[in-house]
Amino acid sequence: MADLSLHKLILILTGVFLVNSSASQEWPDWRGSNRDGIWKETGILKKFKNNTIPLKWSIPCGSGYSGPTVSGGKVYLTDLIGKPEMSERVLCVDANNGKIIWTYSYACPYGNMSYPNGPRTSVVISDGKAYSLGTMGHLFCFDAQTGSVLWQHDLNREYQIIQYTDYLFVSSFYSGSLLVKLGQETTTAEKIWSRVGESEYKTDALHCVINTPLIKDDCIYGVDSYGELRCLRLETGDRLWEDLSAVTKNRWANIHFVEHGQQTWMFNEHGELLITELSPQGIKIISRAKLIDPTTGQLNRNGTGVTWSHPAFANRYVFARNDNRLICAYLGE
Fold first, then answer.
1. Smallest Cα–Cα separation from 138: which of 93, 164, 105?
2. Is pTM beyond 0.90 here?
């Protein structure tokens, strides 16, 4: 039986642990401090000056689906290195200039893995430690400052089922949507509604793939199977509106949402940042600009590719990655 510390770490990496919310200007986890996609910083620009956002720095990296995380003036990323052997890497760089502080690599053949483009999980920073979970179940705990390995486990060998809980709204490409209300006891829940369409073309409610929907104003906002941005009534799942202006219509088209005050910042799969306002009446796009080029490793969409990794927003900067670059851009006024 594994020790208690390992079980606690599994909870951290599967979403039921909340990082200290006082680190509001950092992004130490996937979707931020509490994994809620909320960005609280002030002094942020209201509109982009040009169609392209100037970069502060850009450095090479390998491929991967995982997004960057930021803590203590450092940016953390996992990627896949194909030569001389297939290996995964944990990368720590200086947030100010992109210079490498430390890296750690380990052999990681993927075998028959579907979508073998690299790691899926963002590095989690907590209490001076960096936790990394690789595609094949390699779990590491590093000293976040030095990269020293404090301990490691191979979850594929030590475990056969890892479960995660505490969903309120869930959606999938083929199975549609489900809304549940959690009871006072952690083991009880009530199904409010579930809806599924006839096919991936004739959908009902939301058939999401990568997008994490947003609950706001008693509505659910999310991206459907072919890039349709939709607003649903929370209580019933009824559609209030649909819009195709935020991302080009394609199978599995994606947008990541980040709330900033009354605005919703969007990072679409074309590598664009959009400043928007969402309401039950519709979407208002205030400004949009190109941040990073899409690449074909995550998905070769007619030779143009996608950017599916979630960006990080910290200290008035945005950090994003594609299959070959990790970039940083300033978003202050």
1. 105
2. no
74-81: strand order across its sheet: 69-71, 74-81, 87-94, 100-107
Residues 6+ away with beta carbon under 8 Å from 225: 173, 200, 201, 203, 207, 208, 209, 251, 252
What SS3 state is found at 7? helix
> 307-325: per-residue pLDDT in tens?
999 999 999 999 999 999 9
Sign of the CA dihedral running 277, 256, 182, 131: negative
Q: For the residues 122-151, what does the mean pLDDT come to?
A: 97
Q: What is the pLDDT of residues 237-294, one digit of tens each?
A: 999 999 999 999 999 999 999 999 999 999 999 999 999 999 999 999 999 999 999 9
Q: How far apart are CA 241 and CA 84, in angstroms?
A: 50
Give the tens place of pLDDT for each residue, 154-179.
998 888 674 444 847 889 999 999 99
